[in-house]
Amino acid sequence: MMMRAEALFDGIRAVVFDFDGVILESTNIKTEAFLELFADYPEHQEAILQFHLNNLGISRYVKFRYVVEELMGRPYTSQDQDELGAAFSALVLEKVLCCPFVPGARETLQAMCGQLPVFVASGTPQAELEHIVAVRELRHYFVEVWGTPHKKAEILQDILARYGWRPQQVLMIGDGMSDYQAAVTAGTRFVAQETADQSWAGMEVVRVGDLRPLTQLLGLNQLLVKSV
To answer: pLDDT per residue over 120-164, tens digit each?
Structure first.
């Protein structure tokens, strides 16, 4: 579903991106890592995969707790959190540092630079996210970069409060239901980055197959943000 740039961006003052699957093609890296992390439990692989795919963009620690408590049937401890977190980072970090950009992502960020304030709201742990953004030389595109333990709805609400924007003046771009739900909770606008893992069928959301159409949709070369 496409929409005229004027309608989609009328009055928009800032854009908030999810990161995995929206800026970098890292979603499959993390999906494979979840299965590899619990490879010793083949009986739970399908349930782990389904829970992960149903909760794209949610903190990995929430998923660890689910696997340990709901599937393995034992308490989730701080030791579990530390060990699983370290093992997961070891599986994904180097791959994420060299994976390709989502088509059009870097060009879109370049086009937005200096025209709209851009933020990141991600389910990746804060320190790891900051490291990835720095190594991929993306930091200058973003006003702020936020990961877990902050929740996405809270990040959006905090941005609105601190910068004084109204919810309809901020656009969230994400590829998972957690991104959509955060936008709904905060009242911001939303664009869905379509992927094979997330269906938006039957939902009235603006969807793009990748970020390449956005520069045309937004008319970024001559975008003038209205003062509202």
So the answer is: 999 999 999 999 999 999 999 999 999 999 999 999 999 999 999
The second-level CATH assignment, the architecture, of 5-25+101-222 is: 3-Layer(aba) Sandwich (3.40)
CA angle, corner 166, sides to 118 and 120, nearest 5? 25
Collapsed DSSP state (helix, strand, coil) of residue 113: coil
Phi, psi dihedrals of residue 31, rounded to the nearest 5°: -60, -50
Count the residues in the chain: 228
Helices assigned H by DSSP within the chain = 5-9, 27-37, 45-54, 60-65, 78-98, 105-112, 126-135, 152-163, 177-186, 212-218
From residue 8, alpha-carbon distances to 36, 206, 216 in Å are 40, 9, 12
Residue-level pLDDT at 216: 66
At 211, the amino acid letter reads L
Packed helices 45-54 and 27-37: angle between N→C axes, nearest 10 degrees: 150
pLDDT score of 219 more than 90: no
Each residue's pLDDT tens digit, 171-218: 999 988 899 999 999 999 999 888 766 677 778 888 888 787 776 666
Helix (H, G, I), strand (E, B) or coil at 24: strand
CA 79 – CA 77 distance, rounded (Å): 5
User: pLDDT at position 27, please?
Assistant: 87
